[in-house]
Amino acid sequence: MASGSANDGLTRREMLAGSLLVGTAACAHPLEPASDARAGPPPMGEASASALARAIREGQLSSEELVRACLDRIAAVDDRLNAVVQVVAEDALARARTADAALKRGEGRGPLHGVPMTVKDSFDTAGVVTTGGTKGRAGFVPREDATVVRRLKQAGAILLGKTNTPELTLGFETSNLVYGRTSNPYDLERTPGGSSGGAAAIVAAGGSPFDVGSDYGGSIRLPCHFCGLAGLKPTMGRVPRTGHVFPFGGLLDSAHQIGPIARWVEDLSLLLPLLSGPDFVDPAIVPMPLGDPASVRLPSLRIAFHTDNGIATPTAATRDTVRAAADLLAAAGAEVDEARPAGIEESFSLAMRIYFADGGLAVRRLLDEAGTREHTLAGLVGAAPLTPRQLDAVVTEWYALRSRMSRFLEGYDVVLGPVNAQPAMLHGTAMLPENAPSFSYTMVYNLTGWPAVAVRAGSSPEGLPIGVQLAARPAREDVALAVAAALEDGLGGFRPPALG
User: Fold this and answer.
1) Dihedral-angle region of residue 35 (phi above 0 means left; psi in -120 to 50 means alpha; beta otherwise)
2) How far from chain centre, in Å, is Cα 15?
3) Cα–Cα distance between 196 and 192 in angstroms, integer?
4) Are 407 and 473 in contact (CB under 8 A)?
């Protein structure tokens, strides 16, 4: 029997991080896929933001080297992806040099000191064009950063550029009349999803360590599923929406959340505390406890899983991936039952009535405020609004569903299931009516307001990523993140695309 190697017991993420800290000189290009980890340090494009931040702090890597590598990677792949719609190269390099000089003086700025990032084009960025994917804002340059952008900069992050989004973030495919269509790095004939599709595409392709997205019906989790990443929709009321093109307020306010997108779960745990907490502008954001995922013990958890929500039957590979995740958690000592929340099979019909309840009045108002005349949202602004009696009935039904789902959580800490019924779809098909039920797996947790994490756990026969979704009790992101990290360690997590 072979003797154990020095890597026994280490996860792939830990080996990548450990190798990165050795140095980067052996890489011909720091963002090209590595064929063999023994040949030298791993590419920066596979490393976590946490490992990159540590390498900068420990002097193994300069911020300028990392920023240049990311800019080079964006230049190398974005003609095929169309993921990054604004690049601020000179400003990013200047800020990187400033960060390196400050570190030499012992003046580290925060946990992201010198780490580059991209930001979804739906968030205001001071001095950088922010279109929100709509033509009326094609030349709009905000004076102030969105709250989440400001907080990430205060933590030391450096903006590389803005990533593509569907118009006003309202779509499961990333395409608009300002910048065009974004492609999936695992298959250029397929969509990266939406609405955070540009963010997911460039993070997966190695051009940015992380991004920040918004989620109104699955817009963080779906692109992470399609692009093999980790993403978090936090609990309603945790992260401010101030400075987002689709603002806080309105009937669906509780369904709309902001959260991080990264290659590895540990980065979600790093970024969430930086994004969280009241800004005293978004009135729905309240202080709430945030636990440490490292303190969560899997054997203490009760986990329910389902492979089919009764609305859209997933592919066989998707069902197998969820079962493999459930088996791994059971082997780790968690109590795992095959069960799905009561009422979940009714959630898609309810969501459709809620999303269209105002007949598109809010969308028309935002288009008018932007000065947009030509747009892609005819299907949203052409619906008939509900009558007052119908609106009262649908809101009553909504809260009844939330109550039934909450009662289910009395017996479980986590609900494991698919992110979508399918892996990444071909361009032009995700928004077809026959595919709409596939997205019900994410929408239900926008209706409940629960935190939910997507993490890669398998692959389709075509080699496309397949994620699983972990929804937890309100304010228990720590539990969902801990379970996601265990699945990532056991099932492999992020795998870079063969994009070249």
Assistant:
1) alpha
2) 24
3) 8
4) no
Measured in residues, the chain has a length of 500
| 293 in Cβ contact with 310 (< 8 Å) | no
Fold adopted by 12-491: Amidase signature (AS) enzymes (3.90.1300)
- Residues 102, 86: contact at Cβ < 8 Å? no
Each residue of 86-108: pLDDT tens digit?
A: 999 999 999 999 999 999 999 98
Per DSSP, 362 falls in state H
Contact, 111 vs 137, CB < 8 A? no
Which of 63, 219, 269, 347 is flagged as catalytic? 219
Spell out, as residue ranges, where the chain has pLDDT lower than 70: 1-42
| Token pair of 351 as six digits | 């969501």
Return d(Cα 69, Cα 31) in angstroms, integer. Answer: 7
Q: With left for phi above 0 and alpha for psi between -120 and 50, is residue 200 left, alpha or beta?
A: alpha
Our answer to whether residue 19 is catalytic in this structure is no
Instruction: Give yes or no for a contact between 166 and 195, defined as CB atoms under 8 angstroms apart.
Output: yes
Write down the domain spans for the chain.
12-491
Strand-pairing partners, residue 128, are 125
Say what the pLDDT of residue 22 is: 42
Other C-beta atoms closer than 10 Å to the C-beta of 403 total 11
Provide the pLDDT for residue 15: 54
Q: Which of 120, 135, 153, 233 is catalytic?
A: 120
Q: Are 381 and 360 in contact (CB under 8 A)?
A: yes
Task: Give yes or no for a contact between 257 and 215, defined as CB atoms under 8 angstroms apart.
Answer: yes
pLDDT for 19: 53
Confidence at residue 383, expressed as pLDDT on a 0 to 100 scale: 85
Place of tokens 């020095």: 6
Residues with Cβ < 8 Å from 164, sequence gap 6 or more? 82, 83, 84, 85, 121, 133, 174, 176, 179, 182, 197, 198
Residue 174 CA to residue 48 CA, distance in Å, equals: 25
**Site of tokens 């205060």:** 154
pLDDT score of 500: 79
- Placement of tokens 């992380």 in the chain: 210
CA–CA separation, 278 and 271 (whole Å) = 16
- CA–CA–CA angle 263, 267, 271 (5° rounding): 130
Q: Inter-axis angle of helices 265-275 and 477-491, to 10 degrees?
A: 160
- The answer to whether the predicted template modeling score (pTM) of the entire model surpasses 0.90 is yes
> Does the active-site annotation cover 233?
no
Active-site position among 63, 122, 175, 195: 195
Cβ atoms of 420 and 194 within 8 Å: the answer is: no
* DSSP letter (8 states) at residue 301: -
| Residue 474 exposed, middle or buried by CB count within 10 Å (0-12, 13-18, 19+) | middle
Query: Which residues are CB-contacts of 428 (< 8 A; sequence separation ≥ 6)?
Result: 173
Sign of torsion over alpha carbons 241, 246, 252, 257: negative
3-state secondary structure of 486: helix
b/e map 261-276, b = 16+ CB within 10 Å: bbbbbbbbbbbbebbb
